[in-house]
Amino acid sequence: MFFAFTGLSFKVSVLSMSITGFLYAHYWRVASAWMKKQVLKTPAPERLTQADWPRSLKDPTGFYLECFRFFHQRLPAEIREHRTYFSQNRRGFGEDAMHVMWYSLFETLKPANFLEIGVYRGQTTSLVALLARLKGVPCTVFGISPFSTAGDAVSKYDKGINYYEDTLTNFRHFSLRAPILLKAYSTDVPAKELIKSQSWDLIYIDGNHDYEIALQDWQNCSESVKAGGVIVLDDSGLTTAYRPPLFATGGHPGPSRLAQEIDTKRFREILQVGHNRVFQKIA
Ligand SMILES: C[S@@+](CC[C@H](N)C(=O)[O-])C[C@H]1O[C@@H](n2cnc3c(N)ncnc32)[C@H](O)[C@@H]1O
Predict the structure, then answer these.
(1) Along the 283 residues of the chain, how does pLDDT read in single tens digits?
(2) Residues 6 or more apart from 77 whose CB is under 8 A from it?
(3) Which of 83, 119, 124, 204 most suits a substitution to test ligand 1, by most atoms within 8 Å of the C-beta?
(4) Across the strands, what pairs with 278?
(5) What residues does each domain of the chain span?
(6) How much distance in Å is there from the Cα of 15 to the middle of ligand 1?
(7) Residue 126 in 3-state DSSP?
(8) SUPFAM superfamilies annotated for this entry (predicted)?
(9) In Å, how far from its chain's centre is CA 189?
(10) CATH number for domain 40-281, candidates 3.30.365.10, 3.40.50.150, 2.40.30.110, 1.10.1740.10
(11) Ligand 1 center to residue 281 CA distance, Å?
């Protein structure tokens, strides 16, 4: 009797938790959709150029909303379609505004090479390859990732996906040339050798979000990015004035702490789009 009662109360509490979760998710979906509609009532700026970037550091929340509007009102259809594809079937994380960040960075830097740490299913690597094609700027795309379910203190990834093959399939979907992918943790010797192997125009750190690993990624990449080159540090907005709207996230503690510790004599922060912060090497 006792066990039957305990089992029943367990089931009741699981059921009430899942009802609460369901209601919260429903509320969140409705409220986010409403908020996006309100934000889109204001027109986006005609253009977003490097001259606008300093505004992102003074008013990161306002600038984020501008990028969100720019995505929906101004960005070329091919880039919006790329985001739509990766928003389906859990193919990618990120937010619409981040596509505007990459668009603006690519237009300004015209990178000849790009390295991503933490590839997942290839949303950003394929976006950079697509931008290169659209802009007619040759750019070699590299990625370092375990291509497994390897996560960290704040992230878990789905089982049952061949992440390596899936990334290549996603490139083929857009008829893009395959990227150069290294199946490794960013702290493995072959990964450190790849990072050191060239002087990088553009690097994106978005692998393991634990402070100690993100710090090692920063240390390795900051040596190998060229002077004038740029590192984008994902999920590092918690220690800024950025206040994410309901449909966005502020970042994680590890990368946010790391961003606060970056040597400002060697790197200058030039842009922030939501939880992504962008640092340019001075020398
Ligand atoms: C948030 S996802 C990256 C999303 C991707 N940057 C994009 O834009 O679509 C983080 C990825 O990093 C991978 N990862 C975890 N630990 C890593 C490590 N030590 N080195 C490189 N990648 C790692 C995860 O398996 C996952 O695929």
Answers:
(1) 334 445 556 455 556 668 888 888 888 889 999 999 999 999 999 999 999 999 999 999 999 999 999 999 999 999 999 999 999 999 999 899 999 999 999 999 999 999 999 999 999 999 999 999 999 999 999 999 999 999 999 999 999 999 999 999 999 999 999 999 999 999 999 999 999 999 999 999 999 999 999 999 999 999 999 999 999 999 999 999 999 999 999 999 999 999 999 999 999 999 999 999 999 999 7
(2) none
(3) 119
(4) 232, 271
(5) 1-39, 40-281
(6) 33
(7) helix
(8) S-adenosyl-L-methionine-dependent methyltransferases
(9) 25
(10) 3.40.50.150
(11) 23
CA of 250 to the centre of ligand 1 (A): 18
| Tokens standing for residue 88 | 């389906």
- Show the tokens assigned to 99: 């596509």
Q: Which two tokens stand for residue 245?
A: 């709207």
Q: Which atom of ligand 1 is nearest to the CA of 123?
A: 9
**CA of 74 relative to ligand 1 center, distance in Å:** 29
Ligand 1 pocket mutation, candidates 120, 124, 234, criterion most atoms within 8 A of CB: 120
Ligand 1 atom having least distance to the Cα of 155? 1
